[in-house]
């Protein structure tokens, strides 16, 4: 797999250094920006595969960077990486053209996976954000970016009513313990249902499940 060429935009030097430290061996860093002006100039000069984009920055924020360059650089993919999980921030950046939004609580391994998926044209959200993003775009306005998949999946018919409940909560990012508390079942029972859901839907992990659920409008 060719290492994605990545440009990091964040007004905190520690964050930029942390991203480089986490991903440095698996991606090629081509530049970084600390504000809107330096980000726009740097992205124009380097034309990366993926831009990791903070939402709130001096000079207008990540959305301003995206809106300035999106039409000019259509091959660049944009992934928001922010401390904010506020609905208005997520929806604004996705409507501006980002292919995904993850929070800074993400692990290094999951961030690398998100960068690779976005570079390949996929859509990535932190699991807890997917539900309200889908709701926002269903209510009107520009369509949210989606993978090119069927709108419905016959695999849904293979799930029991309880498995569907577990599937939706898993896709929204709830832990096994949180799901057990909500459904009044044991963690072991949740794990069993989760295993059955992934097997029946022929999915490998929770990231794939979140994508599947969003595509099928089940969040």
Automatic annotation (TrEMBL):
Instruction: Report the record's Gene Ontology biological process terms.
Output: phosphorelay signal transduction system; regulation of DNA-templated transcription
One MF term in GO for this entry? Answer: DNA binding
A family per Pfam:
Response_reg
Query: Locate the Response regulatory domain: which residues?
Result: 5-119
Task: Tell me the ranges covered by the HTH luxR-type domain, including all copies.
Answer: 152-217
Q: Which PANTHER family match?
A: TWO-COMPONENT RESPONSE REGULATOR
User: What are the UniProt keywords, alphabetically?
Assistant: DNA-binding, Phosphoprotein
Under CDD domains, the record lists: LuxR_C_like, REC_NarL-like
What is the protein's name according to its record?
Two component transcriptional regulator, LuxR family
Recorded source organism is Blastococcus haudaquaticus
* 4-aspartylphosphate modified-residue sites: 54
């Amino acid at each position: 797999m060719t290492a994605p060429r990545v440009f990091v935009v964040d007004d905190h030097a520690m964050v930029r250094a942390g991203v480089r430290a986490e991903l440095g061996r698996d991606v090629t860093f081509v530049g970084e920006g600390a504000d809107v002006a330096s980000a726009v100039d740097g992205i124009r000069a380097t034309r990366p595969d993926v831009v990791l984009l903070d939402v709130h920055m001096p000079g207008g924020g990540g959305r301003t960077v995206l809106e300035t360059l999106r039409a000019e650089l259509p091959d660049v993919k944009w992934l928001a990486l922010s401390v904010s999980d506020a609905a208005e921030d997520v929806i604004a950046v996705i409507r501006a053209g980002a292919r995904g939004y993850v929070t800074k609580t993400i692990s290094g391994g999951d961030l690398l996976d998100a960068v690779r998926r976005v570079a390949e044209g996929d859509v990535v959200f932190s699991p807890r954000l997917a539900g309200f993003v889908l709701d926002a775009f269903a209510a009107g306005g520009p369509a949210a970016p989606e993978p090119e998949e069927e709108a419905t999946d016959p695999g849904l018919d293979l799930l029991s009513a309880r498995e569907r409940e577990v599937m939706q909560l898993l896709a929204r990012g709830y832990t096994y313990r949180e799901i057990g508390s909500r459904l009044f079942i044991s963690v072991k029972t949740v794990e069993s249902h989760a295993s059955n859901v992934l097997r029946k839907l022929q999915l490998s992990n929770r990231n794939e499940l979140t994508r599947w659920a969003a595509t099928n409008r089940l969040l």
